[in-house]
Amino acid sequence: MSAEAAVKIVTEHSPEEIARVKEWINTEEYKEKNFAREALVVNPAHACQPLGAQMVATGFAGALPFIHGSQGCASYFRSTFSRHFREPAAATCDAMTEDGAVFGGQNNLFEGLENAYALYKPKMIPVFTTCMPEVIGDDLTAFIKNAKLQGHLPEEVPTPYANTPSFNGSHIHGYDSMLKSILETLTEGKSIEGKCTGKLNLIPGFDGNTGNLREYKRILELFGIPYTLMADISEVFDTVCDGTYRLYPGGTKLEDAAESVNGKVTIALQKYSTTTTMKWIEETYTGEKVTIPMPFGIKKTDAFLMKLSELFGKPIPEKLKEERGLAVDALTDAHQYLHGKKFALAGDPDYLIGLVSFLLEMGAIPYHILCSRTTKKFEKEMKALLATSPFGAQGKVYINKDLWHMRSLLVTDPVDGIIGDTHAKWAARDARIPLFRIGFPIIDRVNLHRNPVVGYQGAVNILTMIANKFLDIKDETCEDQWFEMMR
């Protein structure tokens, strides 16, 4: 390309000015200005509502997620799941464009539902929205009713829907809204007075770790507790490779979800991603309803198992007692590699509660704790958790901040490592500290979503990842005289 044809730089800066600014953004002065901004978000530690809705919709057997909005939005959700899980993320979209923005998207929805059912024969079509139809005020209630009245979709096909604007809330709120709508639709007319299935309804919340879901199922099977795992993505986003493509490879059976209204117990493992769903379940379902923290670490796993034992009158299996002993031994053997080290954390509120609890157990210091879209209730809960341990005394909680804020914290008040998803890698690199990848999405490493981070085995997995990385750094950076066989 000739110099004349090259794109002209709008503003040119001298190498000296670039170097000056590069140093300045690492200062306390810049941090103060950074934390004062209000109208700009840089690298948020959350995704948008419809992505969470697609996670739920994908977790039901034979369900085809249907996005009422633009094709670009649909591609973003699907590509994010495909990059994280390295699996296909089946979904369809009614591809609204400029005419839909002006005249409304009802015709797009009609044509999209008709084509989706004709081509893919789904058992259920959960519908959720993106920004465009929300801004113009599309009425999904009327649109879906009209689609069935006019014969675009058979009346008997369940079509739950949720309003999930990307400009409000986050992926956990989309998860919550879509799950509530699906359960409302499937359980309608199924409640029978006096009937009890004897089953546990387990709601894991928004969790991109298929290993976690498999660990929950393994624990329940060891207990001998019959269960329905809601929005079960473990077989959908972690399926076999045997040469056969399965459009609907797994998920919660619709009939099991429909019968959940008559269950013995309903447990939610994430308070912040199931708020409206659990409020509705409290009013609608029979049996006991419980919300408890995710079982991170020893203490919270103990609480989960004891609650199962209490609710179902079953002793804790010997196998799980043995696993606890092995985990305590592993944590004792390696606690010195985490003890006293400072950590920054960024992620979803329920994950942060669990991870901070684990670090406190290990004598580590949760120092910077950032949640980019949450409430004062979370801040209060996190501060109360920090107050339970002397290792939490230095911890600071930052709500509704982003990863550019986190960068300022890391370069002005350093820590030994940061726990978060792939988006934290830039801040970690600038601060020259290791990133321990736990959360969603993880798109720059492989198979981490298959390794559970909950339960006793999850505690060992987290410890092993963190301790070994610190040992790697020690070997890679120490002087020759300190390069030893044993660490």
UniProtKB/TrEMBL annotation:
Annotated protein name in UniProt: Nitrogenase molybdenum-iron protein beta chain
Family note: Belongs to the NifD/NifK/NifE/NifN family.
Keyword rRNA-binding: no
NCBIfam families registered for this protein in UniProt: nifK (TIGR01286)
UniProt cross-references to SUPFAM superfamilies, sorted A to Z: Helical backbone' metal receptor (SSF53807)
Domain Nitrogenase/oxidoreductase component span(s) in chain numbering: 48-470
Catalytic activity reported: N2 + 8 reduced [2Fe-2S]-[ferredoxin] + 16 ATP + 16 H2O = H2 + 8 oxidized [2Fe-2S]-[ferredoxin] + 2 NH4(+) + 16 ADP + 16 phosphate + 6 H(+)
Function according to Swiss-Prot or TrEMBL: This molybdenum-iron protein is part of the nitrogenase complex that catalyzes the key enzymatic reactions in nitrogen fixation.
Required cofactor names: [8Fe-7S] cluster
EC number annotated for this UniProt entry: 1.18.6.1
Protein origin, superkingdom: Bacteria
Complex formation: Tetramer of two alpha and two beta chains. Forms complex with the iron protein (nitrogenase component 2).
Coiled-coil spans in chain: none
